[in-house]
Amino acid sequence: MIRYPTNVALAAVPVNVAPLTDDTDFKTRETGVAYNASGMDLVWNFLGADGSFTQTAVTPTSGGDYDWAHKGDGMYAIEMPASGGASINNNQAGTGWFTGVATGVLPWTGPMIEFVQGGAITSGTPTTTSFVSSHLAAAVTDFYKDAFIVFLTGDCAGCGPKKITAFNHSTDTVTCEALPTAPAVDDLFYLMTGA
């Protein structure tokens, strides 16, 4: 399963889990499916953390919020905005996947994607033990003190989870166990809960 933090724009969310395939010979990879292909019907299926299930039609574009791109060998991806998009946004925790059809292509499904509480470092000068992120929703301080942070991008990616030791709602400052190096503004992270 793929995991992304909520509240950040995503440049390339996978649309299909296997190459798009011709519906006549059932084996030729379709490498030229355009964003506006005949019969294109792309649906975002989303199971919210609260148990709600929605299906939302997504109209791919050739640029902007839902930019459709061939990534190679019949694999496609689409951009997803953090908020303000015409249909779907990356602003809710849960699990989602794409399904779709287009003329001349077998129906497809995308990989399961988990969207977890997280975000990006949004301002300031991060240190090895603190940073600012306005992406974290207001919650009781104890929630964050029982959470671990995992960086997905930047120099801290792959350094393992670090326990959050404090969160200041007034300044959006997160304090955590020492990281091996200071992260940077725009580095992405997600939170894991645990005791």
Can you describe this structure in just a few lines?
With 195 residues, this protein is an all-beta fold. It has 1 helix and 15 strands; from the N terminus they run E-E-E-E-E-E-E-E-E-E-E-H-E-E-E-E. A hairpin with a 2-residue loop joins strand 5 (68-72) and strand 6 (75-80).
Structure description:
By secondary structure, this protein is mainly β. It folds into 2 domains: 2-115, Immunoglobulin-like, CATH 2.60.40; 117-193, Immunoglobulin-like. It is 3% helix and 41% strand. The protein is built from 1 helix and 15 strands; from the N terminus they run βββββββββββαββββ. A hairpin with a 2-residue loop joins strand 7 (94-102) and strand 8. The radius of gyration is 19 Å and the shape is elongated. The relative contact order is 0.21.
Main features:
195 residues, mainly beta, Immunoglobulin-like, 2 domains, 6-stranded mixed sheet, 41% strand, elongated
Tell me the total number of β-strands. Answer: 15
What percent of the residues sit in helical stretches (DSSP H or I)? under 10%
CATH class of the largest domain: Mainly Beta
Overall residue-averaged pLDDT value = 92
Strand percent estimate: 35-45%
Whole-number total of structural domains: 2
**CATH architecture verdict of the largest domain:** Sandwich
Q: What general outline do the C-alpha atoms trace?
A: elongated
Task: Give me the CATH fold name of the largest domain.
Answer: Immunoglobulin-like
| Straight-line distance between termini | 24 Å
